[in-house]
Design goal:
This protein has 337 residues and is α/β, with parallel strands linked by helices. It has one domain (16-334): Metal-dependent hydrolases (TIM Barrel, Alpha-Beta Barrel). Helices cover 51% and strands 13% of the residues. It is built from 17 helices and eight strands. It has helices spanning 3-11, 27-37, 46-51, 58-69, 75-91, 103-107, 113-131, 147-157, 182-190, 205-214, 230-238, 247-252, 264-269, 281-284, 288-298, 303-315, 321-334; strands at residues 14-20, 94-101, 134-142, 166-170, 194-199, 219-222, 243-245, 274-276. Strands 1-2-3-4-5-6-7-8 form an eight-stranded parallel sheet. The chain is globular and about 50 Å long. Bound molecules: hypoxanthine (HPA) and zinc ion. Zinc ion is lined by residues 18, 20, 170, 198, 221, 279. Zinc ion binds at residues 18, 20, 170, 198, 221, 279.
Length: 337
């Protein structure tokens, strides 16, 4: 890739819409927090932990991801993790980020819901103040747990309603279809929360359709398997339902073998509102710019695609209209449009 294009990808303003904050926990920070909190890990060193990051599918990743999150206990831990991510996002010229968090991973271990939200939220406020980087929180339900447990988590979240912009659905996709959570998503919609769900990462296109029809989500996280269903693909394009695609995640979790096999170009050619995101950057080999760089190096993508992907990221976001217009104006100026 030529230097001009790689500079454009690095420097263009962008939004990140699919990033699990627990997936930004770098091995060094896992070890530092384990020591600070007296938590023992089954890995002897940072290197040994990093060597375990050879995944064969989503579940083999999730097992390690939940083990890594076990070092998080105090509000300061959640703050430090979030601050480390926001610094990297700022360095990648991310202007706006929507962060997923998984409260059940922590409340199950006896960590208070408020400890989780307050630590993450305080870091987002500091990023706003320091750099003007806007960030908001999307609370995910773990789909391998029951709908009843999701309802209980929603109850815990109600006192923090003003700190949460939306609801997502993550963890093991196969065998846990969207309809399992139809009622709790309906309740979240009544509360005025934005709705998204992981669908069509490992699961079939049918899960994308049921996420739209039964959960009424506004965006699909991943969604790369939509192309197996032409009618669904047309619907996503016509209704401008954004897909938050995570290229390095897809490769690490064996959804595609290599970067050159990714279907990003086909998704764009189908007229879909594609965005590029890092998913779990500490585990998958890079933050958002690295995802752009590796896709553009491997696929026939150029400057116009860069503009379109950055534009999509702001259009697909849940930011207020004046802020969106401000970011889009900055983007147009950057590209001289
Ligand atoms: O990519 C993912 N898929 C499902 N659940 C997750 N939780 C963190 N990352 C992921
Ligand atoms: Zn994800």
């Amino acid at each position: 890739m030529d230097a001009e294009l790689s500079n454009i990808l690095r420097q263009m303003p962008k939004a990140e819409l699919h990033m699990h904050i627990e997936g930004s926990l770098e091995p060094e920070l896992i070890f530092a927090l384990a020591e600070r909190n007296g938590v023992s890990l089954k890995y002897a060193s940072v290197d040994e932990l990093r060597r375990a990051y050879a995944f064969k599918d989503l579940q083999s990743f999730l097992d390690i991801y939940y083990a890594g999150a076990s070092v998080l206990l105090t509000e300061q831990d959640f703050y430090d993790m979030t601050w480390a991510y926001l610094q990297r996002a700022h360095a990648d010229n991310v202007r706006h980020s929507e962060l997923f968090f998984d409260p059940q991973t922590h409340t199950e271990r006896g960590v208070d819901f408020g400890t989780v939200v307050n630590g993450i939220y305080r870091a987002t406020q500091d990023a706003q103040e320091k750099w003007g980087l806007s960030a908001s929180l999307i609370m995910c339900f773990l789909r391998h747990l029951s709908e009843e447990e999701a309802f209980a988590t929603l109850e815990l979240a109600l006192p923090y309603r003003d700190k949460i912009i939306g609801i997502g659905l993550d963890s093991s996709e196969l065998g846990h279809p969207p309809e399992k959570f139809a009622r709790v998503f309906a309740r979240c919609k009544d509360l005025g929360l934005h709705l998204v769900a992981h669908a069509g990462e490992e699961g079939p296109p049918e899960y994308i359709r049921t996420a739209l029809d039964l959960l009424q989500v506004e965006r699909i996280d991943h969604g790369v398997r939509c192309l197996e269903d032409a009618e669904l693909t047309q619907r996503l394009a016509r209704d401008r339902i954004p897909l938050t695609v995570c290229p390095l995640s897809n490769i690490k979790l064996r959804v595609f073998d290599q970067a050159k096999d990714h279907n990003m170009v086909q998704l764009l050619d189908a007229g879909l509102v594609v965005t590029v995101n890092s998913d779990d950057p500490a585990y998958f080999g890079g933050y958002v710019n690295e995802n752009f760089l590796q896709m553009f190096a491997a696929l026939p993508l150029g400057k116009d695609h860069a503009y379109r992907l950055a534009r999509n990221s702001f259009e697909a976001s849940f930011i207020d209209q004046p802020t969106r217009q401000k970011y889009l104006a900055e983007l147009d100026a950057f590209f001289g449009r």
